[in-house]
Amino acid sequence: MVFSELSVTPYLPKITEKYELTLVENTTGIEAPVAASTGENQILSLSFIASIIDKVREWSEKRKMMMVPDSSTFPIVMDSPFGSLDANSRRHIAQTIPKLANQLVVLVTKTQWRVEVEEEIIDRIGKEYVLTYYSSKPDCEQDFIDVGGEKYALVRQSPNGFEYTEIVEVDRG
Predict the structure, then answer these.
(1) Cα Rg of the chain, angstroms
(2) Three-class SS of residue 107?
(3) Protein fold of 2-126
(4) In this structure, are residues 116 and 94 in contact, taking their beta carbons and an 8 Å threshold?
(5) Which of 47, 87, 89, 135 could lock onto 2 through a cystine, CB 3.0 to 4.6 A?
(6) Where in the chain are the domains?
(7) Other CB atoms within 10 A of residue 84 CB
C-alpha cells in the first residue's frame, strides 16, 4: 500500500522465499519480476521501512498495557532519501517521511535539497544544520549553499592543515 502511494508505477512489492525485496508486475494476470531502476529501488526501500513502522505502531497500540513505548518516540535517521529520484518522486517522499516519526533526521546533499523537497519539508523543520567540510588539500575548490537567504560553506580550505567537518546551525531568523 505504501509503495503504491509513493510510486507512479503499477508494480507491486514482494518478498521472495529468500527474503529478498523485489518488484513484480501483474498486468497479464501472471506475476513477472521487474528490473527496477535505482529510484524505484529507493522508493521500495523507503516503503518497506514505512510499512515496518506502521506495523510496529499497530502492535504497540494493541499492547499499551505492557508499557511498550510508542513507535513514534523512536527517531529515524535517513541518509540521502532523495538521491536518485525525479521531481515528482522527491515531492511524494518529502510529503511522506515526516509522517514516519516524531523525530526525523534527514541528511541531504545540496542537489537533493531541491525546490520540491524544501517546499514540502520547510514548515516541519525543528533544527537545521549545514556540515562544513574543511579539506587539507591545498587547492580544494570551495562550495557554498544558500539557506534562508544566508550563504553557508559546504567545503572550505582547512586553516590548520587538518581534515575535519564542522556542524553549523542554520539560523532562519
Answers:
(1) 20
(2) strand
(3) Rossmann fold (3.40.50)
(4) yes
(5) 47
(6) 2-126, 128-173
(7) 15
Give residue 61's identity as a one-letter amino acid code: E
Euclidean distance between CA atoms 116 and 122, whole angstroms: 10
User: Helix, strand or coil for residue 159?
Assistant: coil
Alpha-carbon gap, residue 116 to 92, rounded angstroms: 9
Please tell me the least confidently modeled range out of 7-11, 129-133, 145-149, 166-170: 7-11
Place of cell 575548490: 141
pLDDT per residue over 27-86, tens digit each?
788 888 888 888 888 888 888 888 887 777 777 777 665 555 555 566 788 888 887 788
Decide if 31 contacts 25 (C-beta within 8 A). Answer: yes
Query: If you count them, how many residues does the chain have?
Result: 173
pTM summary value: 0.71
CA 27/CA 25 separation, integer angstroms: 6
